[in-house]
Design goal:
about 150 residues, mainly alpha, 4 helices
Length: about 150
């Protein structure tokens, strides 16, 4: 149980940073192209942090689920997306970001954009980490083979 809590906290911290960055990028794009205001309201930055906190907690919780079958994975993925959309639409309504039907669609598209950004970054970093581990393992076993005269001696 302690290991799961430790893993949740680690994943939460990682997802929070990635999601906050992605959300800031999407907000900058949305504000630049779809807003009539000249400046970003001061409260928006704290609202972004609240949204990132909530969606990072949801994502970290879903990361702990280990689906057994491909079908379960698809259901978890869809449920995760729905939870993120509902959370962000709820926050959007609460913070006054959404006031018409079009805004809800735009929010869902923004969530999809942040999701794709975060998953891509996470994949790249995970792949790099795995490559470094493989190199270290190869080096370690090569060193052992050199000491013992090779695996076939």
């Amino acid at each position: 149980m302690i290991m799961k809590i430790k893993l949740f906290v680690q994943w939460f911290a990682e997802w929070f940073v990635f999601i906050t960055t992605g959300t800031l990028i999407i907000c900058a794009v949305n504000f630049t192209f779809f807003s009539e205001r000249e400046t970003l309201p001061k409260a928006t930055l704290s609202h972004i942090l609240i949204c990132s906190f909530l969606t990072a907690a949801i994502t970290a919780a879903f990361s702990l689920i280990e689906p057994l079958k491909k079908r379960s994975w698809i259901i978890c993925f869809l449920l995760h997306i729905v939870c993120l959309d509902v959370t962000m639409i709820g926050c959007g309504l609460l913070f006054g970001w959404i006031d018409k039907h079009f805004d809800m669609i735009q929010m869902c598209l923004s969530v999809a954009g942040v999701y794709m950004f975060v998953v891509t970054i996470y994949y790249i970093l995970d792949k790099h980490h795995a490559e470094k581990m493989n190199i270290s393992l190869r080096k370690r076993y090569q060193d052992e083979d050199d000491l013992t005269g090779g695996p076939y001696n």
